[in-house]
Amino acid sequence: MLPLSRGVIIINTQFKKGVLELLVMLIVENEDRYGYELVEEVSKIVDVNEGTIYPILKRLTNENYFETYLKESTEGPPRKYYHLTILGKERKEKLLNEWTKFNQSVSKFLKERERNE
Fold first, then answer.
1. pLDDT value of residue 7
2. Contact 65, 25 (CB under 8 A)
3. pLDDT single digits (tens) 83-103
């Protein structure tokens, strides 16, 4: 893991893949967001680009976790907004529970390992 100057951490791609779906869902949970806005928000947490986030949005929409709608923009063409569906909220809760258990397990292992060194 390498820290970036703006507080963002560069992490192993495989680690990142496992958590991006959850991050996107958590960001959209309380407020509908458009694609580029999501890229910016996720980028504040982990180093990502548009080419990483848009396929996730497409897949989550295809799987009925997101609904989309167009909204006029004062700065160009209409923007596609993403809204978390009821099914999406259920998926987000499941992922959050899995992440919490996983994180606790790994953290516990690392603490025990530290004590044994």
1. 59
2. yes
3. 999 999 999 999 999 999 999
Domain ranges in the chain are: 2-107
Interval 34-82: pLDDT, tens: 999 999 999 999 888 889 999 999 999 999 999 999 999 998 999 999 9
26-30's contacts with Cβ under 8 Å and 24+ in sequence apart are 26/92, 26/96, 28/66, 28/82, 28/83, 28/84, 28/88, 29/84, 29/89, 29/92
Topology, domain 2-107: Arc Repressor Mutant, subunit A (1.10.10)
Q: What secondary structure letter does DSSP report for 38?
A: H
List pLDDT tens digits, range 16-32: 777 999 999 999 999 99
Contacts of 84 (CB under 8 A, 6+ apart): 25, 28, 29, 65, 66, 92
CA nearest neighbour of 46 among 76, 80, 88, 8: 8
**% helix / strand / coil in the chain, to the nearest 5?**
60, 20, 20
